Amino acid sequence: MNQSSKPLSDAETKPLPSLDVWEDDLLERYPEPGTIAKGKTTEEYRNYESPGRDSVREFYRLNHTYQTYAFVQEKKAEFLSFGRKEMSVWDAFEFLNQLVDDSDPDTDLDQFQHLLQTSEAIRADGHPDWMVLAGLFHDMGKVLCLFGEPQWAVVGDTFPVGCAWSDKIVYPEFFAANPDVSVPRYQTRYGVYSHGCGLRNVDLSWGHDEYVYHMLKDYLPEPALYMLRYHSFYSQHREEAYDHLLDDHDREMFKWVRLFNPYDLYSKNPVPPDWNALRPYYEDLVARYLPEKIKF
Ligand SMILES: [Fe+2]
Ligand SMILES: [Fe+2]
Questions:
Q1: Residues 153, 246: contact at Cβ < 8 Å?
Q2: Residue 210 Cα, ligand 2 centroid: separation in angstroms?
Q3: Distance from the alpha carbon of residue 103 to the mean position of ligand 2, in angstroms
Q4: Which ligand has an atom closest to residue 268 CA?
Q5: Burial of 193 by CB count in 10 Å (0-12 exposed, 13-18 middle, 19+ buried)?
Q6: pLDDT tens digits, the chain, 296 residues: what are they?
Q7: Dihedral angle at the C-alpha atoms of 116, 121, 125, 127, nearest 10 degrees?
Q8: Which member of 42, 125, 139, 215 has the greatest number of CB atoms within 10 A?
Q9: Is-above-0.85 flag for pTM?
Q10: From the CA of 114, which ligand is nearest?
């Protein structure tokens, strides 16, 4: 059985009050840069007193139930031909901002402000301009929600499909309901992959990372592409649970993914950046790397 065989209810499409609730939860799991949650059990996460907790739990239940190997292939075929829309970068940010948080409209920053805070924090630390650009674009793939995709197929920690799930993935018990549980080939340590085969040969659960990576893969240097593609792969970049699938090149590139992660998680600030002052810098940056229009 897969997700497309029956229509999803609203509750199944949008278990979270907003996409930001997933990221707020990440901050509770990884309260500090460099925290590796080794030894921290799912039981402990579950005991947090947090208003978003039940919806986060339900979100992961759906994510872990429906993200099968076949589902990922389906979504790649559906979205990676980029035939939906063509927009200028600035129109694309406006489009992305249609994703509003109806639960708490006054306190949350819009998507563009999160992107700008991420990119500004990277710029303030003097990193290369293509890393600033990766910061600016890393969540652009969340437009998938505006194309009608359920939240659990857009955000959430990503993980390899087609091989055994690590118990370092948050809420691993929910994988028991994933139909891949009854495919013996997918249930071994290496599954359809082989030792050190390299992440370019590994399918991760479908979401905004993979989508934005393909959107921009012809325009940014490789370290930036790794940041885009793997920024939600917490079970590797924080927990190192899939070392056996990485090759040496991935290991080298994951230094960049780990460098990027704190800017994503810890740059949120209630004061919105002054876009008018920043605009000339970003217009120049975007024009230097990206084409006039981006395909969705
Ligand atoms: Fe993201
Ligand atoms: Fe982000």
A1: no
A2: 14
A3: 19
A4: 2
A5: buried
A6: 455 567 899 999 999 988 888 988 998 899 887 654 444 444 454 454 555 678 999 999 999 999 999 999 999 999 999 999 999 999 999 999 998 755 554 456 889 999 999 999 999 999 999 999 999 999 999 999 999 999 999 999 999 999 999 999 999 999 999 999 999 999 999 999 999 999 999 999 999 999 999 999 999 999 999 999 999 999 999 999 999 999 999 999 999 999 999 999 999 888 889 999 999 999 999 999 999 999 99
A7: -40
A8: 139
A9: yes
A10: 2
